[in-house]
Amino acid sequence: WAGLTGCYLPEKRMMGTLMILMASVPLVFLPLPTMSVLWVSVPIWTAVLLALWIYPKNAGMYKKYSLVMRILGIFVLLPAWFALFKLHQMDHRYVLYLITLVALADTAAYFTGRKWGVTKLAPHLSPGKTREGMSGAVLVTAAWATLATMWLPVPADKSIHFMILSMFVVLMSVAGDLFESLLKREAGVKDSGQILPGHGGILDRVDSLLAAAPIFALGLLWLA
Predict the structure, then answer these.
(1) pLDDT digits over 86-106, tens only?
(2) What is the predicted pLDDT for the residue at 137?
(3) Dihedral sign from CA coordinates of 152, 156, 159, 161
(4) Taking the complete model, does pTM exceed 0.85, yes or no?
(5) Which among 64, 123, 146, 178 is least surrounded, fewest beta carbons within 10 Å?
(6) Distance CA 128, CA 120 (A)
């Protein structure tokens, strides 16, 4: 995240890491209201959706407000981590389901888009993504969510709600992916990092989960 927001000095990156670690301590050890922490993600990702919608009209402003973007990382990374932490507390199978859900949706979008893709989803951010591909991802999501209710602790009367939640989570995962593409374009880089050569960096592997995890956790708490 630091590299995508113009923070290149090692000491500044270390300081940012320490800030996030310090902010995560109360999330684990203090009895903070789970819903309140997760709700932080809602205005953040609503703003992200707006930014994606108007891009490239807002191109260049991210470099101008690089400090704001660095601080934003705290409100993107921490709620996602906290959501995964809470999902594991609720039932570790929810974490497995979320990861497979996002992975299956991404795979379905790729192959559906490759076969039938015509209409670009976000040509200025990710030319390879198509609306047809996203439709394929949503259909696969519905099928996987239906199967998953057989081994997840989802009440029978909530199965339809769970499927709808899963479909919405997948749509939000696409927003997470596109937002990272936006940051990379603004930073003028191809990869978010060098730790995973050929995979674009660690952030590229988890960008979808950054948006999906908090929304999924909120949805499950609401269903409960």
Answers:
(1) 999 999 999 999 999 999 999
(2) 95
(3) negative
(4) yes
(5) 64
(6) 7
